[in-house]
Automatic annotation (TrEMBL):
Family note: Belongs to the D-isomer specific 2-hydroxyacid dehydrogenase family.
Name the UniProt record assigns to this protein: D-glycerate dehydrogenase
Keyword GTP-binding included in the entry's annotation: no
Keyword NAD listed: yes
UniProt keywords, alphabetically: NAD, Oxidoreductase
One GO term describing the cellular component: cytosol
Residues annotated as domain D-isomer specific 2-hydroxyacid dehydrogenase NAD-binding: 116-290
């Protein structure tokens, strides 16, 4: 591939919306992958094509040893999402490679989607849809197929960052009371009347509905003991990271009635998720689509390109991590 003069060579190492691809081609000497590249493929392309910037994602999953194998030409790895737990940021810094993310791009759509999960789980959306798709020939009376009213419920939010606060803002419009657990208590203007719980153990017994809205990591947050601390008949939703949940414990809680229902957009293994969850009628499932709108996916790509453009122009990154 012949180099374009005076333009930084950028590797788009994952499938992106066409608007992002078009902008990358217009502004950079862009090498466009036709699939999501793993770390080995990214490293090979960087060496072969003199790549200076990488727009990558979770599939690449750069470990410290992967970072060590990148050529010296690479100056920045731009993540088009808020999360960056799939890569060793410290190893990148050690090599002088800037890592960026897109912390604001997903906030509104993921918060909207979290409310979708809450409503769908509480109002038995999966069961109602299944009835309709099966032909609905049996009438239902007043005692039948009852869900949970969310107005007046206590919503426990674990992780009160941008998305958690946006979820709280939306939930207040439904008449929910907001409680939260965070590493640090927020200032009053950001709490906006929410009640702070210093520990997860303190939050759980007070949460009629529990929403995870924090980054993933190595620790399982929702263990068998954690689910047992929730009020019996609580609702659990997760649009954050599947790695935070012991799915065996989740399934047991759903089968035993400890949980009334769950709304899940993320799973420990994706896309080969635990299909036992799909067999439970009281689970509303979506395939990791929290940010899946045209506007949000375009902004995710544009934010990554903005960071690349800044660094390639010798300016500070816009969203360093």
């Amino acid at each position: 591939m012949e180099r374009v003069a005076d333009k930084p060579r950028v590797l788009i190492a994952r499938r992106m919306p066409e608007a992002t691809i078009a902008r990358a081609r217009a502004e950079f000497d862009a090498v466009i992958a036709d699939r999501d590249l793993n770390a080995d493929a990214v490293i090979e392309a960087c060496h072969a094509k003199g790549i200076e910037a990488i727009l990558s994602g979770k599939k690449a999953g750069f470990t410290a040893s992967d970072i060590a194998r990148l050529p010296a030409s690479v100056k920045i790895i731009a993540n088009p999402s808020a999360g960056y737990d799939h890569m060793d940021v410290e190893a990148a810094r050690g090599r002088g490679i800037i890592v960026t993310n897109a912390p604001d791009a997903l906030t509104d759509c993921v918060a909207d989607f979290t409310l979708l999960l809450i409503l769908a789980a509480c109002r038995r959306a999966a069961e109602y849809e299944a009835i309709m798709r099966d032909g609905w020939r049996r009438p239902f009376g007043l005692p039948d197929m009852l869900g949970r009213k969310i107005g007046g419920c206590r919503l426990g939010i674990v992780g009160m960052g941008r998305i958690g606060r946006a979820v709280a803002h939306r939930a207040r419009a439904f008449g929910m009371t907001i409680l939260y657990h965070n590493r640090n208590r927020l200032p009053p203007e950001l709490e906006a009347g929410a009640t702070y719980c210093a520990t997860l153990a303190a939050l759980l017994p007070q949460s009629d509905i529990l929403s995870l809205n924090l980054p993933g990591g190595s620790d399982v947050l929702m263990t068998r003991e954690a689910f047992a601390r929730l009020p019996r008949g609580a609702v659990f939703v997760n649009a954050a990271r599947g790695s935070l949940v012991d799915e065996d414990a989740l399934i047991d809680a759903l089968q035993s009635g400890q949980l009334f229902a769950a709304g899940l957009d993320v799973f420990r293994r994706e896309p080969d998720f635990d299909e036992r969850l799909a067999k439970l009628p009281n689970v509303f499932l979506t395939p990791h689509m929290g940010s899946a709108t045209v506007a949000t996916r375009n902004r995710m790509g544009f934010d990554a390109l903005d960071n690349i453009a800044a660094v390639m122009a010798g300016k500070p990154p816009i969203n360093p991590v």
